[in-house]
Design a protein that fits this description.
- There is one protein chain.
- By secondary structure, the protein is an alpha+beta fold.
- It has one domain.
- About 30% of the residues lie in helices and about 20% in strands.
- The protein contains 4 helices and 9 strands, in the order H-E-H-E-H-E-E-H-E-E-E-E-E.
- The strands form 3 sheets. It has a 5-stranded mixed β-sheet. Strands 3-4 form a two-stranded antiparallel ribbon.
- A hairpin with a 2-residue loop joins strand 6 and strand 7.
- The longest helix is centred in the N-terminal third of the chain and has 51 residues.
- The protein is elongated.
- The relative contact order is 0.14.
Length: about 220
């Protein structure tokens, strides 16, 4: 009787190996393509949360300034987030910035310092209100819409297409993908949101606009 070789085993065929490698490659490709989009979505979610913080902080501003006209920061005022806040001895290469006091105060700077930087006015600290990409947010507070009858979303002192805004059905939105790279938070007293644009409302209300990385313009208001 012939002996049976019980130790003999069949190996993988070339076709099976190629098939496994192809599936693994497809999975890797799907992850490679989907991961950046997921990361952009997560950053935009954080930006929406940050704009919600701005919204809540503006309501707190109104509570703390109940005797002021409109109870809102008086614009137009622009403050670049790259500046130090109330820093008198900023390192070489950095820009000194003092929020000022009274009628000469830059209320955009004051708002970031007192409400968005955990209430800290530590002269050794830079702007801690930052976009998820690591760069600091800048803040532009427009004039109250109901005062002038129109507004502009172009802060003085900053030039270029990054600040181009467009009118949409008698309202305004931020135009151009390069607006995102400027990281400007637009606060519009007297405005309210209509989709991704801001339209005129009552004097005491406000709207906030911010250009997202992958989903257009985000608008949030107090209504």
């Amino acid at each position: 009787m012939a002996k049976q070789n019980i130790n003999s085993k069949e190996g993988f065929t070339i076709i099976e190996v190629v098939l496994v490698l192809a599936i693994a490659g497809l999975i890797f490709l799907m992850v490679f393509v989907a991961l950046p989009a997921l990361q952009r979505s997560q950053r935009d979610t954080q930006r929406r949360n940050d704009m919600s913080r701005v919204d809540t902080s503006l309501v707190q501003w109104q509570t703390n300034h109940s005797t002021d006209a409109n109870n809102l920061p008086a614009g137009p005022k622009y403050w670049p987030g790259t500046d130090y806040i109330d820093k008198t001895d900023a390192p070489q290469g950095e820009t000194n910035s003092n929020c000022g006091t009274g009628a000469t105060a830059n209320v955009a700077c004051v708002f970031v310092r007192d409400y968005m930087n955990s209430g800290s006015s530590d002269v050794g600290k830079k702007n801690e209100f930052r976009d998820p990409d690591g760069g600091p947010y800048s803040v532009y507070i427009t004039e109250n819409w109901n005062v002038s009858g129109s507004i502009t979303l172009t802060p003085s002192g900053v030039t270029g297409s990054k600040l181009v805004s467009s009118e949409v059905a008698n309202g305004y939105t931020i135009g151009g993908d390069d607006a995102f790279s400027q990281r400007i938070v637009y606060i519009v007293p007297g405005g309210k949101c209509s989709g991704s644009s801001v339209v005129k409302s009552e004097r005491r209300h406000f709207a906030i606009l911010y250009r997202l990385e992958g989903a257009g313009t985000y608008c949030i208001d107090d209504q």
